[in-house]
Amino acid sequence: MNLLEDTKKLLDALPPLVNCWIAGGAARDIFLEQDFTADIDVFFKHSEAAGDWIDHLRNKGYPEKSSTYARTFTVPYKNTQIELQIVELGYWDNLEQLFDDFDWTVCQFSYDSDGLYFRIRAVQDLMKNELHWCKIKSGYGGVMRMIKYVNKGYTLSEETVKEFLRAMVDCPPLIEKEWKNQ
Questions:
Q1: The domain containing residue 111 runs over which residues?
Q2: Band (37; pLDDT cuts 50, 70, 90)
Q3: Confidence at 69, pLDDT banded by 50, 70, 90
Q4: Number of domains in the chain
Q5: Is the pLDDT of residue 182 over 60?
Q6: Is the model's pLDDT at 63 over the cut of 90?
Q7: 80 and 140 together in one domain
Q8: How many C-beta neighbours within 10 Å does residue 160 have?
Q9: Residue pair 42/22 in contact by the 8 Å Cβ criterion
Q10: Interacting residues of 100 by C-beta distance below 8 A, sequence separation 6+
Q11: Which of 65, 122, 155, 164 could join 108 via S-S bond, C-beta 3.0 to 4.6 A?
């Protein structure tokens, strides 16, 4: 695997990718050997590893903000800046657990100190530019992410839309909880 020079510089400035993974779109960008096109999400095996990263990024003086799901640091990348998100939705023992927790197959890519990992279905969907969902984690968020990927050029089959809507209908408590929090 050939990391782009700017990607390598950024990764070299971060703590080692041990007990954690860069996953989702940034790992997909590494797979495609292209510059990062959005934020960088880092997922962790345990809170201590996340804490080490947070301490490192704070010590570097990177601007920080928090949300309900992540602690976000703005870090230099190329001639601009990029958001690096320390995901705080939970912790995962292994990549299978992490991949099982993603909502769309095109997110099932990860990168750590040992290399790049992905599910075969994720690569197949990426190469065909197709969007397929895996798990409903969020009604509103799932729809917004679906729109984001369609705007990036991914296509949805009629069957995928039907399956997604069926799953949404089958998850009323999740959707009701989200609407109460809006």
A1: 1-123
A2: confident
A3: confident
A4: 2
A5: no
A6: yes
A7: no
A8: 15
A9: yes
A10: 134, 135
A11: 122
pTM, full prediction: 0.87
In one-letter notation, the amino acid at residue 78 is K
- Give the whole-angstrom CA distance, residue 160 versus residue 155: 10
Res. 172 pLDDT band, cuts 50 70 90: low
Both 19 and 97 in one domain: the answer is: yes
Question: With helix as H, strand as E and coil as C, how does 10-33 read?
Answer: HHHCCCCCCCEEEECHHHHHHHCC
Reported as half-sphere exposure (CB side, CA atoms, 13 A), residue 18 has a value of: 4
Domain check: are 35 and 90 in the same one?
Answer: yes
Encoded amino acid at 94, one letter: N
- Is residue 54 within 8 Å of residue 70, measured between CB atoms? no
Q: Are 111 and 124 in contact (CB under 8 A)?
A: no
Q: Residue 173 and residue 125: Cα distance in Å, rounded?
A: 30
Sign of the alpha-carbon dihedral angle for 157, 163, 167, 168: positive
